[in-house]
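User: Teach me something about this protein's shape.
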Amino acid sequence: MTTATRIDWTREHCRLLQAIRREFAVTRPFEGLTIGTGIHIEAKTVALLTTLRAGGAQVVATGNLNSTQPAAVEALRAEGVTVIGAQTRDEREHGRYQRELLATQPDLILDNGGDLFARYLDHPYPSLKGGTEETTSGRMRLKPLRDRLRRPVLVINDSPIKQFAENRHAVGQSTLESLLRLTNRVTNGERVTVVGYGACGRGVADNLRGAHAKVSVVEADPVTRLRAHLDGFDTPARDRALSTADVIITVTGAPGVITAKDLPLLKDGVILANAGHFPVEIDAAGLLKAPEVRAVREYEDDLATLELADGRRIHLVARGHMFNLAGPRALGNSIESMDLGFALQARCLEAVATGQVDGTSCVVPVPAEIDAQVADAYLADRYQ
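Assistant: First, the predicted structure itself:
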């Protein structure tokens, strides 16, 4: 009997990336190029970055806030990927890692939240060809910078495949799984408020409803709020939705969704958790320092209880970080959903490296032909 790791299991089931890796080992689209990335470093990322290495790239990587997994770092380094830094919640330290990465002047950037491209503009260099951006948050950040970037930047999150496979289905599943695993609390009959009804919010709301919770949606956009209503969710006013909730999950991409100003609204025993990319939707620091908080109890698995002066208790998961990936023992989204998304990444980086797209494709969706190529490959693998 042989012993294998979680990373081995993940790579075995990233079947799209396995096929692309075999192809790239022959075609070598990144020969002589350096790819720099700031991405969640976990088991599925190992499959992606080693695929890029097989294509001839020198890969330099750093993590995102609080999601870097030591076993993944070790696996990447063993295969020649340069990993800068370690797991951190300190934004200054995180910024230092990003600056160190950009000092290597990568030819291609695989960004996750727009941090690297934004920092590149502070100290530009001529050899950058372009790259990819993973998230909606990053697209919103980079879109106003198009005139300064003037390079191909393909937004993975704007692919319909990424929207329905990962954002809707996988984020919803991993959020429910993480909530159950970390809190071990019932969902049946509980009142859950989901703040944000984009693709990720729809998935979270659907999965919590499937777990027999009573789900309400808070959404700023009236048309999207109407969609939530027609999808069968309650859409009360924000204050009412927060004040009646047993669980509040934010998934908006916006800062300051839940702050200390909301403490008077929150019911005793409410659980606060964030499934959005950046740890800014729930102002954890502000909540912890609020004058209403008389004591804080820390538990295992990154759970904390804020005891208020009036006797209410507010439970905070993962200090407002993305709890389905940054929390303890996190697995993140399903392997197959990330295999699809990372296949898009690999193909888009290949397109930029080989000149299939130019500066007119600056902060634009994945080309339709790449979407079709990845979809065909996934289905052909399942029905062979």
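Now, about its shape. Residues 170 and 334 are 6 Å apart (CA to CA). The two ends are 30 Å apart (CA to CA). If you'd like, I can walk through any region in more detail.
User: That's plenty for now, thanks!
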